[in-house]
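Recall the central idea of this unit: under ordinary conditions, the amino acid sequence of a chain determines the structure it adopts. In this exercise we apply that idea directly, starting from the sequence alone.
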Amino acid sequence: MKNFMDNHFLLNNETAIRLYHDYAKEMPIIDYHCHLSPKEIYEDKTFKNITEIWLYGDHYKWRAMRSNGIEERYITGGATDYEKFLAWAKTVPMTIGNPLYNWTHLELQRFFGIDELLNEESAPRIWEKVNALLNSPGYSARDFIKKANVQVVCTTDDPVDALQYHLRIQEDHDFDVKVLPSFRPDKGLEITREGFRPWVQRLEEVSHIEISSYDAFLHAIEARARFFHSVGGRISDHAIDSMVFAEATKEEVAIIFEKALKGQKISIEEEKKYKTYTLKFLGGLYAELGWTMQFHINALRNNNRKMFDILGPDTGYDSINDDQIAKPLTHLLDAIEQESGLPKTIIYSLNAKDNDVIATIIGSFQSGGIPGKIQFGTAWWFNDNKTGMLEQMQSLANLGLFTRFIGMLTDSRSFLSYTRHEYFRRLVCALIAEWVENGEVPNDIEFLGKIVQGISYNNAKEYFQFTQGAMSAK
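Accordingly, the structure predicted from this sequence is:
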């Protein structure tokens, strides 16, 4: 029997142990998609207590606490931070089998040196020890990033954002981690939502372009993308909860856009045409700028309307969608490829049923000169667990080139989430070692170690080229 989460956690044989400890463990991190606050990084935020860094905004934990019967008062309500921490400590033993159980203890071990199990009995001791550390030097937002050996952080940013904190971070030569913006124009694509017209007005203000037509809208979007580029942005991101494709002329889409500006009702078919044409335009723009385009597909958001009205979005009331994606996604990628050439592209689905679909679709659009130009993104959100990660990697290995995989990201709002990279890397080593033990691949540790280092860091470094010195506009 193995000891609980010891140095060989998730590593089931000597090959896995060697691959992780000799090759994966010390590799840096490129966090190419997260939801960290650039303001908190700039201000080098410190935390009063463990609840503030651990439970504020963490809807993974909130969902688990609700499932454990914890009242909302102790999750997002008016209870004290200590009471909320005790409620989480009561929940942790019930999360066995959920990655939260391992993540919780990895974070305690790696950042605070605590090997004790968190439960109701140990909670007061752990509360005191962690809080004492948080109130001492070496435990600020930047410290956690540096301790995790992070080289690049790509935040998620609205095109109307002024990016003032990114600019200020770049002026601070005492902090050598690149903090770069990612361009997420979702609000400009969701033409049927209430916030569309106010967002267009905001875009008009920040771009200094009067938006009275679809052409002007595209011009303003492009202007903001070029501004992001000047600040170091090299990635876009799109939450495409339902994948759509409907061909339309620019003239048709212009009429649809003008209807939306007037507050007129937009049909489902009109929405599809608008999104398709706009995504094709953006794909061409990203290709011109040399960016990477990300599609996050098949999330079903804000399911509980009552709680949405109370708490708003991103509070733990989302789930997996089951829309069909093969035809619309393929048609969209093909249209972009024909019109402008695809940019580097990463495709994620929240539904594991899409694993083989995506793994085969990306193979239809690879092109010479860029290894793994079109990527099957790492297991995401509800799938970033042991089963989900292994299934995603196995699909990619079966149907594509696992060796060219750009690996893990945090997709998190927490400065402690970098332990998820360790969790992922251990699984990569375990998977490859299983192939070795089964005689499916040769026992060439040096060669396999290079593959492990590629998936852990080197592939992403080469793919994005964030760390290749100063970045200038293309």
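Confidence is low (pLDDT under 50) at residues 469-474.
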